[in-house]
Amino acid sequence: MKKAYYYFFYKLYKIMLWTSSPFENFYSKFRASLALIALELWVIFTIRNYYHIVNNSNPKLSSNLLLYVITALIIISNYISIDYYNYVWEKYKTEFDKLPKKKNTLGGIIVWGIILFITVNFLLSIHYLYQKFYGILK
Question: Are residues 16 and 10 in contact, defined by beta-carbon separation less than 8 angstroms?
Answer without folding.
Answer: no
